[in-house]
Amino acid sequence: MTALPLLSHPHADCIVAFRADGAVTRQQFLSEVHQLASLLPDGQHLLNLCNDRYRFSVGLAAAILKNRISLLPPTQTPEVIRQIKQFAPDVFCLADSEQCAVDLPRLNYPDMAASSPEEISIPQINGSQLIAIVFTSGSTGIPMPHPKTWAGLVDSVQSEAGRLGTLDNATVIGTVPPQHMYGFESTVLMAWCNGFALSHAQPFFPADICDALSSAPSPRVLISSPLHLRTLLNAELAIPELAHVMSATAPLSEQLARDIEVRCNCPLTEIYGSTETGQIASRRPTQGPAWQLFPGIRWLIEKDSVFAEGLHIAPPVLMNDVIEPVADDLFLLHGRMADMINIAGKRHSLAGLNHLLNSLPGILDGVFYMPDETDDVTRIAAAVVAPGINAETLLAALREHLDPVFLPRPLLFVDALPRNSTGKLPRSALKALFQAHHPVWTVPPDHPALAGHFPGHPILPGVVLLDEALHRIAQMHGMTPDRYEISSVKFMSPARPGDRLLFQQTALPNGTMRFDITSGPRKIASGSIAPIP
Amino acid sequence: MQDNQKSDSTLQNEVAQLMVECLNLEVTAEQISPDTPLYGDGLGLDSIDILEISLTISKRYGLQLRSDGADNKEIFGSLRSLSAYIAAHRTL
Fold it and tell me: In terms of CA atoms, which chain B residue is nearest residue A208?
């Protein structure tokens, strides 16, 4: 296969990056790449943990130069690091922070010398060279490797840049880390292969994003996600001038896309892809719902399954989303397959989560439940039958294996899961279970009991509060409410429409249940409920 | 001195209340002890929560959080450290 250049910046003094101390020329970058390359240990595999995007890019280039393979796992929990070590026993990590606690042989990012005046030529990389292995969390708990060649990555990011329109000498600023596929392609490789400069920054808070933008010259491209873009808009800061915004990891609502375009006064392009395929399509949500495949990518449809193929994708990759092709290269997305969970851009197989939960010591039965998604980040919940262990122990065990975004909230301990006669867990039964256990209830302004109680001063009748408390306690014990009676109750202050009520129960030694209802610092009611003998 | 302590704990209660409401936490504000870690093993917040709560704090107290200013993990180390940061930087 033919060789392709590492960079497309035509002159030695072209700017390839902006770091804290200013612009970095192609010459200085390549000099630092060679300096780092000479320090790499013998291992064939590298975990590049640099927090600074510029240093990450030097580490990646040095690895490519020395034919090392960069490993990109979905997360860095101790269990995933153990699995990575099993996959590649010679793996070492490159780190630029003292706080890096990953248990691997480590190369610290070195201090670099200035480059010599003699021009360093751009390395030519064989298209078939294996550059990276990106991992997804598999359904059996073992990370699945997805190899990426140089030619495949170059194809992807050149198509991506094609969707930006004409932009010369752009600066790329990313809010997403380069250690995941989207950030890897869009914030590093797209800059390399299209003559752009990358910003070293890894901004997090909205003010960080504005700082990172203002310290890089125009035209600026912001590579971000719905979560970061939503908080950026909500912060109501003055956003520096932008030429283009890109979003991926989760679908944007059309409204949010429109708000971003208005506030940033530039087009917003959404990227579609996956760890398995890389980026394969884009759309501009304000101009219509359909996605357009990148040139050379096709769908292969077999019965109900849709595979992506073409260019670097071989063999064809089964898509985890519900895809409806509408014309030639256009398609609509109708959500994810039921098994795939996506929380703020991190994906996990639901079957994999359930498999893990049920393999932990002390769990007799357990299930994860993903509530219906809204525009905000939706959290996953879990219910377990685990009489011998407490929430802390269980969460600590899960934390060993899972990225924190997948830790369940709430985590319910129940006597039995609502399995039906065939042993299955219907989604509706799980939904009811979690609703009853949700300790917070916001008094609906249109609650029927408020009508006439009292005109002009709506107050929730005490009997409604008692009924709510009774149902919650009964559901927790798998009983019907008619098996319980109220043995005492005290109302301290009124509950009004829109109040956010917190229900808490404590089991007392005599078998009765004490309940407390609060709204912020206000005590609303408390009392006790006893089983009818 | 006593007044200082009192205003510290008033602000801590207020911040705890903001966190409980903003993140829909399943505890009451009083149950969050000032020194429980907010990340990881303690209250179990993650970076998505930190982003959400930072927005609420920015609006309520008129300050902008920056991760390069002071150490992010330190500010969000506990209710006490977060409240101290707010007390030192608030404009509202």
Answer: B66
Mean pLDDT, range A336-360, rounded to an integer: 83
- Are residues A326 and A348 both part of a single domain? no
| Residue B70 predicted with pLDDT over 70 | no
- Assess whether A200 and A102 both reside in one domain: yes
- A408 CB near a chain B CB, below 8 Å? no
Q: Which of B76, B83, B25, B20 is nearest to B47 (CA)?
A: B76
Residue B81 C-alpha, separation from nearest chain A C-alpha, in angstroms: 18
What count of other Cβ atoms lies within 10 Å of the Cβ of residue A313? 21
More confident residue, A511 or A486: A486
Contact between B54 and A227 using a beta-carbon 8 Å cutoff: no
* ipTM of this complex: 0.84
A21-43 per-position pLDDT tens digit: 999 999 999 999 999 999 999 99
pLDDT value at position A476?
66
Between CA A243 and CA A120 the distance in angstroms is: 32
Interface test with B, best of A205, A435, A518 (most B CBs within 10 A): A205
Same domain, residue pair A48 and A108: yes
Q: What is the mean pLDDT of residues B9-20?
A: 89
On whether both A44 and A89 belong to a single domain, the answer is: yes
* The pTM of the whole model exceeds 0.90: no
CB contact under 8 A, A205 and B64: yes
pLDDT in tens, A44-88: 999 999 999 999 999 999 999 999 999 999 888 888 999 999 999
Residue reference for tokens 């996506």: A342
Kindly state whether residues A92 and A36 are assigned to the same domain.
yes
Check B67 against A208: CB less than 8 A apart: yes
Beta bridge partners of A348: A341
8 A C-beta contact, residue A36 and residue A70: no
Candidates B10, B21, B24, B92, partner chain A, best to mutate (most A CBs within 10 A): B24
Q: Chain B residue closest to A376 (CA)? A: B52
Same domain, A378 and A478: no
Overall size of chain A counted in residues: 533
Q: What is the CATH number of the domain that holds A24?
A: 3.40.50.12780
**Mean per-residue pLDDT over chain A, rounded:** 89
Q: What is the pLDDT of residue A374?
A: 61
How many CA within 13 A on the CB side of residue A213? 25
- The CATH number covering residue B85 comes to 1.10.1200.10
Same domain, A140 and A13: yes
pLDDT at A477: 66
Number of domains in chain B: 1
Is A527 found in the same domain as A496? Answer: yes
- Domain of residue B17 covers 2-89
Residue A383's domain comprises: 340-434
B58–A235 CB contact, under 8 Å: yes
Per the structure, how many domains does chain A have? 3
Res. A19: pLDDT tops 70: yes
Among A304, A336, A368, the domain boundary falls at: A336
Residue A124: what pLDDT?
A: 98
Rounded to whole angstroms, the Cα distance separating A186 from A249 reads 12
Q: Does B82 touch chain A (CB under 8 A)?
A: no
Q: Do residues A472 and A484 make contact, with C-beta atoms less than 8 angstroms apart?
A: no
Amino acid at A82: R
Strands A411-413 and A197-199: unpaired
CA pseudo-torsion sign A473, A477, A479, A484: negative
Q: How many CB pairs under 8 A join A and B?
A: 68
